[in-house]
Design a protein that fits this description.
alpha+beta, OB fold (Dihydrolipoamide Acetyltransferase, E2P), 5-stranded mixed beta barrel, 29 strands
């Protein structure tokens, strides 16, 4: 955990001060019962549930420093794990103290911690055994607050108050190890030494995102910083390695050992790096030394070979001047294709390009003797863009001032980045002095400024021309408006005339429809009158005659009742037969003379009543149901639904051999659906009997539904029964009246 980062973030500042164990829970709204008693349970808390849980932990302090940066905070570890204690104040325990801590949990900035603690010392105890861990596991933040042990190579160091921060490289990672400043030990001699350290891991993180940045190690005592192997001899006394062979195979090369190089200085950025050149090539040497050298000085350096952007570099280097006389570095003219694959990296080159842009950026003025202002030019060569960076002012107060569009030649250190496949990604040329930039060709007369002036003049001419065109256009527009008004008036008159003709035509059609409707109504009335007359005649010719015959038979039977009982019974039997015949004829008449008032009151009930009459003395059980908003329908629709239901039920009785039948009326908002289903033997729908075989039932249903603009669907399979579904639209009143008139005329 990074203390400098952790304590500087506002979102990780907690309440300052202590409270007693009895009053702390009530202030936080918690119960007085201690919930967690070991560090591993604290670390296991999810971030969203780690607020305000009471804690009682006993363990040993593993890291603590009595300075302003720590401010009383410390790490402790029990038998299960280590945890960070947010102890804000001057009262701070020491490493090795056995303590008891009472506090509450908090999610922390990266891992859960203890905050608002009250602690008391129980005694002293040995530090917990450090757990050896892989460097990858440590750098992943898994061992935060734990006491661990790692090995590595010392690459650099820097004093920091009461401790010395050693930068240790291990397995491709670098981490800071804070060690109490050793007495009588020259830290410089520890560069390149292999060491084994035991300490408590802490993390640097982004508190808002809870993201890990890097990991550090706090060593509580000098005995935990174990030197396993010092660098043998003086590295400056070793054999000088040619610069181009650092990344090549060398049989004598040893891992994590410094190498000795020598060359002529071509460029330096004090405190950051310097560039050397020998007969084989160039090399970037990264060093934090602020000692200044000049281009041409011959220096020797020792450092650790490494790679950046797939190119060799000497890391963590120390350098010193030699007694060799100053030499003039040689430069090589190159083109962009010649730089592919990293060739001439960190070497002194001369390259040409066209200036596309010029900007200035500010750097720290405390670095070296150069000015804090830098000029960066963007150049183009062979469709490749690269940058040239140099000081705005040099030793002779020369300045870099290049017009945009100039063709220039720059001589400086070539700093490249290449991809894994060797292709050049970016190129930066570092100019040692403004004089290293030479203008080969000035930009053309058509500079951007002159082009803008020309465009401004052309714009002025265009404005004058447009003004004249606008004036003429306005006059033409007035004339066009007058012409359009006359044309619109003419169009309006024509439209009114056409509209009047359409209205006359529509009214004529309406009158024709009304006359036709009246004629059709008269035809319907005549047809109904004729039908009722026919039924009256039928009643007269059948029912009245049958009743007369019954009366005669009863009279005859009464004459023989006393004298001849056999003949009397015979005449009574004849009368009974006439009664049965009369019932059949009356039922037939009832079907034709059905009262409209009954049908409109309960169509479903009427269907049930008729169904019971038709299935009397049969084994068929009929169920009638109505769904939806039950409401009266037009006489025409209800009459036809009754006839369709009667015909369908008759077919069930005659042909289906069914034991159950259902009749359903579905009152929809736009349609009414009549469904007749049975559980009979069924049939193949495309092979059922028809008019040719003397069966007109389904044909009659289809004709009735077609006249009402409806649809009929019949579904049946052998052994699975039959379903007849009739859908009839509920037409608006006007359309319904016209349809009734048409059907009446057909009758």
């Amino acid at each position: 955990m990074s203390f400098a980062t952790f304590f500087s973030r506002l979102d990780l500042v907690f309440m300052v001060g202590f409270a007693t164990l009895a009053t702390l829970p009530s202030a936080l709204g918690q119960s007085t019962r201690v919930v967690l008693t070991n560090a591993s349970d604290i670390l296991a808390l999810p971030a969203d549930k780690a607020y305000g849980i009471n804690l009682l932990i006993r363990g040993v302090v593993t890291a603590a420093q009595p300075d302003a940066e720590w401010g009383g905070r410390f790490f402790m570890q029990d038998t299960t794990a280590g945890v960070f204690v947010e102890n804000i104040g001057t009262n701070q325990p020491k490493p090795g103290d056995s303590i008891e801590v009472v506090g509450i949990s908090h999610p922390g900035g990266f891992a859960p911690i203890i905050t608002q603690p009250r602690w008391r010392k129980l005694g002293t105890a040995p530090l917990p055994e450090a757990k050896p861990v892989p460097i990858e596991q440590l750098m992943a933040g898994i061992e935060d607050s734990q006491r661990v042990e790692i090995s590595g190579i010392v690459r650099a160091f820097r004093p920091k108050g009461a401790v010395t921060v050693f930068e240790i490289a291990s397995g491709g990672y670098r981490l800071d190890v804070n060690v109490p400043s050793p007495e009588g030990v020259d830290s410089q001699k520890l560069i390149g030494a292999k060491v084994r350290v035991r300490g408590t891991a802490s993390t640097f993180y982004n508190g808002k995102l809870r993201h890990l940045i890097t990991v550090g190690l706090h060593v509580p005592q000098a005995a935990d910083f174990i030197i396993e192997k010092l660098e043998t001899g003086d590295p400056f006394a070793e054999r000088v390695i040619p610069l181009d062979s650092l990344a090549q195979y060398r049989s004598e090369h040893e891992l994590d050992t410094r190498v000795h190089v020598k060359g002529t200085v071509t460029y330096q950025r004090p405190g950051e790096d310097l560039f050397l050149q020998d007969a084989t090539g160039g090399m970037q040497v990264k060093s934090r030394l602020l000692e200044s050298v000049m281009p041409g000085d011959v220096v020797e350096a020792v450092g650790f070979p490494d790679f950046e952007q797939f190119l060799p570099v000497l890391q963590d280097a120390a350098f010193r001047k030699t007694k060799n006389p100053r030499q003039t570095p040689t430069t090589k003219a190159v083109t962009i294709p010649e730089l592919e694959g990293g060739f001439r990296h960190a070497d002194l080159v001369t390259i040409q390009g066209k200036v596309l842009d010029s900007t200035e950026r500010r750097v720290s003025p405390s670095v070296g003797r150069q000015s804090g202002q830098r000029t960066v030019l963007t150049l183009q060569n062979s469709n490749f863009l690269f940058s040239v960076e140099g000081p705005t002012t040099g030793g002779d107060d020369a300045t870099i001032s290049v017009p945009i569009g100039s063709l220039v030649e720059a001589s400086g250190v070539c700093l490249m980045k290449i991809a894994e496949d060797g292709k050049l990604q970016s190129l930066q040329v570092l100019l040692p002095h403004p004089a290293n930039l030479r203008i080969l060709q000035a930009p053309t007369w058509w500079t951007p400024q002159r082009l803008l002036i020309g465009l401004a003049g052309l714009f002025t001419v265009l404005v004058v021309a447009l003004s004249w065109i606008v004036m003429v256009s306005r006059r033409n527009a007035v004339l066009q408006v007058l012409i359009q008004e006359k044309e619109q008036a003419q169009v309006g008159l024509q439209h009114a005339n056409d509209h009047l003709e359409e209205r006359v035509k529509e009214r004529s059609e309406q009158l024709k429809l009304q006359i036709t409707a009246r004629q059709e109504a008269e035809l319907q009335f005549k047809a109904v009158l004729n039908e009722r007359t026919r039924l009256a005649q039928e009643l007269h010719d059948t029912l009245e005659q049958t009743l007369t015959g019954i009366a005669l038979q009863m009279d005859t039977a009464s004459k023989f009742a006393g004298a001849d009982a056999g003949r009397a019974n015979h005449h009574i039997e004849l009368a009974r037969n006439l009664v049965t015949q009369s019932q059949t004829e009356v039922r037939s008449s009832v079907w034709d003379l059905r009262s409209r008032s009954q049908e409109q009151i309960d169509l479903a009930g009427l269907l049930l009543k008729i169904s019971k009459q038709l299935t009397e003395d049969t084994s068929i059980e009929v169920h009638v149901a109505a769904v939806g908003r039950v409401r009266p329908l037009s006489e025409l629709i209800e009459d036809n639904l009754l006839r369709v239901a009667q015909e369908g039920l008759t077919n069930v009785i005659k042909h289906s051999k069914a034991t159950q039948a259902t009749i359903t009326l579905d009152y929809g908002p736009q349609n009414i659906i009549l469904t007749i289903g049975d559980n009979g033997v069924g049939f193949v729908t495309n092979k059922q009997a028809g008019p040719r075989e003397g069966h007109f039932g389904l044909l009659g249903i289809s004709e009735r539904v077609a006249r009402l603009r409806g649809k009929v669907s019949i579904s049946s399979e052998p052994g699975k029964g039959t379903t007849v579904e009739v859908m009839i639209p509920i037409a608006p009143p006007a359309d319904l009246g016209l349809l009734e008139s048409q059907l009446g005329a057909q009758l």
